């Protein structure tokens, strides 16, 4: 699972949801309408930045358009226009720092002001660049029914009709919205910036994009910041890491706040009693954006385990109501297109006939044990939204993945995480650290997802500044 989601602040106060799944404390503003992201005929400007002007609403930065081919292999005609935002220090001593947002499905340009503020101490040395990755922002892939059902979640189970309607709406071009295609776009961005190498700072799914870029172009990377890490191999579903990490995270939060119960044991009892594992997991991975200490959750679990589920159900309902998002904030069409192309499932990849997938998923569920998914159950592992989305996604070719033995290039890599992160748990960070020959690990106690922008402690940001300014 890649739990990267735009979370809108709920006005109820119970579930004031933080944002941009990986980035901010408020919902992403919808980009201004315009041509960016629209597909058009082949352009002589592909790979160039054109139309440079002050960014609308962020006039201290320069916005431009990057034309990229729809199909990097060149077999299908057409281009996409991607919005790019930049600081003005074109000749920064340390070159370009490209910040990659998450999702997949989240834009980048709307967050330029927010993120430039967070990275201000290094911007005298770097030109900061953000991009609306293909299928996001003004060029978001539109799937109204799937968007309404899932909002900003990748754990809410969608209906099969919403999934198949989405795939039909995007059409055959959906195969051009994989991470591999985004990696191709990033290399054209590098060329358009006039850079021989770039530094990358990715959050959540943005770490996966940064890793895949470094694997594809090891000689074109200066250094990597990986915040809230998704491992470069991707997520082989069913995902068990987040399920089992929940016990560690909730117990750690409980110890920090002095609660007197065992939330992991209570959670296991709740799932056994109410068979609501996917809904509880979705709520928990949302609630970390509200409060990294999960205040109130242990008490709600304890009450539900004792037969009084009303408070817990209130948290579930409240987070679900607060998780709405437009496609311009987080495109579920792009989310499905990318993850169904990138991930492996019990049936293999999306280049597997749809007819045999459900049986393969059921076999996988039967092979799971209660211990391997505790404090959840096997049905939670196989009943999550991303899994069920790709179960019904049409068969299509998928891009080749890098070898699982291929390590990141020998460039400095900072792997940053919080010990309360359920969306991208520390176990993933440690897995990726083994693939980084020059990796440096920084874990911020008490922090949840997106350390650079959301942690109350400044320790993670200071580590990023020191890392980027070193050498």
Question: How would you sum up this structure, described in words?
Answer:
The chain is of the alpha/beta class and 471 residues long. The protein has a single domain, classed as Alpha/Beta hydrolase fold, catalytic domain (Rossmann fold). It is built from 18 helices and ten strands. The chain has helices at residues 112-118, 144-150, 160-170, 179-193, 205-216, 241-257, 263-274, 277-287, 297-305, 310-321, 332-342, 357-367, 370-373, 378-382, 385-392, 426-433, 451-454, 459-469; strands spanning 39-40, 49-55, 58-69, 79-86, 96-100, 127-131, 198-204, 221-229, 413-418, 439-444. Strands 1, 2, 3, 4, 5, 6, 7, 8, 9 and 10 form a ten-stranded mixed β-sheet that branches. Strand 9, helix 16 and strand 10 form a beta-alpha-beta unit. Helix 2 crosses helix 3 and helix 9 (297-305) packs across helix 10 (310-321). The longest helix is centred in the middle third of the chain and has 17 residues, at 241-257. It is globular and about 65 Å long. Mean pLDDT is 91; it is low at 1-45.
